[in-house]
Amino acid sequence: MKQPAWRNAAMLAPAVTATVLLFGGALAGAVDQSFTPPLGGGLDSWSLDNWRSVFGDPVFGDALVFTLLTTAMATVLAALLALVIASLMRRGSSAARTAAAFPVPVPHMIVAVVAVLWLAPGGLADRVLGSLPINLVRDQAGLGIVLVYLFKETPFLVLLLLAVMGRRLDEQNEMAAVHGMGRWARLRWVIWPAVRVPLGIGSIIVTAFVFSAFEVPLAVGPNYPPTIGTYALEVTQTDAISGAGEAAAALLVGAAASIAFAVGILALASRQRRSDA
Amino acid sequence: MRNSGRMSGALRTTVVLAFSLPFLVLVLQAFADSWTAPSLIPQEFGLRGFRDGFAGGGAGVALTRSLLVAFVVTAVSLLLAWPAARVIGERRLRHPGPVVLLLAVPILISPFAIGTGMTGWFVRLGLTDSVAGLVLAHIVFSLPYAVLVLSTGFSRRLRLSEEMASSMGIGPWRRLLMVTLPETRPTLALAALMAFLVSWGQYGSSLAISGGSPTLPVVLLPFIGSDFEVAAALSLLFLVPAVLALAAANRAGRVR
Fold first, then answer.
1. Tell me: the pLDDT tens digits for B187-212?
2. Which residue, of A93, A108, B39, B161, has the greatest Cβ tally within 10 A?
3. pTM of the model
C-alpha cells in the first residue's frame, strides 16, 4: 500500500527538525563565531580577522599537516588490517568474533588510558620487553595516536566486513575458482565488490572521527605539533579575546575537510559502480 | 591442510588476545596502591585510585550526570528516529539520498566544533552547564546512528505482516506489541546501544558546553597524565556501563 507523501513528510519531520535545529544551529553558531570581530562589535559587524590569524599562524599549518598525516595513516592501516583480520576471523567461532570486537563499544578515552598504561616510559610494555625501541606516547610523529586508533577502529571495520563475508561470498568465490579464475582475479571481481561498500563507509566514519576527535591526541599525542582539535582547544585556553572565534574557524576547516573526504569517497564509489555495471 | 588450519587457529587466538587482553591492565592498575617499575604486578593492592578519584564528590556527580544524560539521549533519539527510520527502511522515498545525507552528516563533524557553535545559543537560552544542554548536544551525534541502524530493521516484509495483522482486526497498539516490536527487536537493541554509547563516550561537545558541570570523560582526562591509579579506576567505572549496555543489547536483540 503506497503511503501519501504528506504522511512520509510528517514521519520524517521529528528527526529532520531536530537535526536542522540542533546541528544547523550549531554550525551557524560556529560560522557566526568565526566571523565575529575579536574585539566584538555591533550585531551587523563581521570580519575575516579570525580566519586571517588562523591561516597566518604557522602552528595551524603544522596542525593541519599533522592531522592529515595521522588520519591518513590510521585510516589506511586500519582498513588494511581489518581486511586481513576479517578474512581470518570469518571462519572463527562467534565467541572469538565477540572477543575480537571488544574494543568497539569501549570509549576512545579508555583505549587511550590503556595505551598510556602499556606504552608510556616505564609502562608495562617497557617492563616486559626491557625497553621499547621507539617512544609511542607523546612522540612527535604521532605513532601513539595512530596505534590507539588502529586498536579502536580496526575491530569496528572488521565487524562491518564480517557482515558481508558470509557463506554466500564463499560460494561465489568457490564458483569463480571452479570457472578457472585465479586468486587475484577472484579478489578483484568477487571479494572486492562485496567488501568495498562497507569498507568505504566504515573508512569515512573512521576518517571523520580521527580527523576531528581530540581526546586521544590530548592523552597520548605530542605537545607539538597539535592536531586541529587540540589546536582549537589551545587557542580558546590561551587567548581569551579572539580564542573562540579562531577555534571556530580552525574547527570549520576540519569539518570541511571531513565532508570533502566523504564526498570524494562516495563519488569514487559511484564512479566505480558505474564502470563495473 | 591440517597445519594451515592450526596456523589459522593460532592467528585467530592471537587476534582475540591482542584486542581483549590489554584491558586487564586497567583492573590491575585500578586496584593498585603501589605499582612501580620494574615490577610486573602491583606491589600493594588497595582502593586509593577510587578514593582519590571520588574525593570531593566531583567524579560521583559526573558519573550520575553522564548516566542520566546517556539514558535520556537514548530514549529521545529512539523516539525521534523511529518514524524516520521507518520511512527510509521501507524505501518509501523516491530519492532518499538527500534525507539520509542530512540525517547522517553530523557524524562527520567534530563534536567540539558542534559544542563550540552551540555555546552562544545555549548562553542566551540559559542551557550551559545543564543536563538539558548536554542532552541536546549529544542528540546531534546519537540521532544519526539511531536512524541509520534502526532503518535496517524496517522492510516491506514487516509492513506486509502488519497489514496482515490489521486485516485480522488487530488494533494499532496490539499490532505494535505483537508484530512490529518483536520483528524489530534486534535492530532496536542495536540502535539503543549505539545511541547510549555515543552519548556515554562523548567528550568534545560536553567539554565545550558544560565546563562547570562536567561529565565523566571530562573529569577523567586530566588524570591520564598525572595519576595512573585514579585514571584506571575512573576508566573502569567508565567501562562498566558500556559493557553492561552491550550485554543488555545482546540479550534484548536475541531472537526467541
1. 898 899 889 999 999 998 998 887 77
2. A108
3. 0.86
3-class secondary structure for chain B? CHHHHHHHHHHHHHHHHHHHHHHHHHHHHHCEEECCCCCCCCCEECCHHHHHHHCCCHHHHHHHHHHHHHHHHHHHHHHHHHHHHHHHHCCCCCCCHHHHHHHHHHHHCCHHHHHHHHHHHHHHHCCCCCHHHHHHHHHHHHHHHHHHHHHCCCCHHHHHHHHHHHHCCCCHHHHHHHHHHHHHHHHHHHHHHHHHHHHHCCCHHHHHHCCCCCCHHHHHHHHHCCCHHHHHHHHHHHHHHHHHHHHHHHHHHCCC
Q: Grid coordinates 537514548 are at which residue? A: B74
In a domain, A216, yes or no: yes
* Interatomic CA distance for residues A145 and A108, integer angstroms: 11
Is the residue at A15 inside a domain? no
Q: Which of A16, A29, A116 sits opposite B118 (nearest CB)?
A: A29
Q: Which residue has the cell 558546553?
A: B209
User: Residue A191 in contact with residue A234, Cβ under 8 Å?
Assistant: no
Interface check A128 vs B, CB under 8 A: yes
Q: Which of A33, A110, A204 to mutate to test the interface with B (most CBs of B within 10 A)?
A: A110
Tens of pLDDT along A63-91? 999 999 999 999 999 999 999 888 888 77
Q: Which amino acid type is present at position B73?
A: V
For residue B146, pLDDT over 90 is answered with yes
- Structurally, at CATH architecture level, domain B63-253 sits in Orthogonal Bundle (1.10)
- The helix/strand/coil state of A120 is coil
Q: What are phi and psi of B45, to 5 degrees?
A: -95, 150
CA distance A254 to A228: 7
Closest to B8 (Cβ–Cβ): which among A91, A218, A244? A91
Element at A67 (helix H, strand E): helix A58-89
CB-based contact (8 Å) between B62 and chain A? no
Least confident of A87-91, B37-41, B141-145: A87-91
DSSP label at A204? Answer: H
* Interface pTM, i.e. ipTM: 0.88
Cross-chain Cβ contact B109/A23 below 8 Å: yes
What is the three-state SS of B216-228?
HHHHHHHHHCCCH
CA distance linking residue A57 with residue A235, whole number of Å = 11
Question: In chain A, how many domains are there?
Answer: 1
Partners of B44 in the beta sheet?
B34
pLDDT confidence bin for B255, thresholds 50/70/90: very low
The Cα A236–Cα A54 span in angstroms is 12
The boundaries of the domain holding residue A126 are 60-276
Burial of B136 (0-12, 13-18, 19+ CB in 10 A): buried
Q: How far is B124 from chain A (nearest CA, A)?
A: 12
Asked if B191 and B149 touch (Cβ cutoff 8 Å), the reply is yes
Identify the CATH number of the domain in which residue A133 sits: 1.10.3720.10
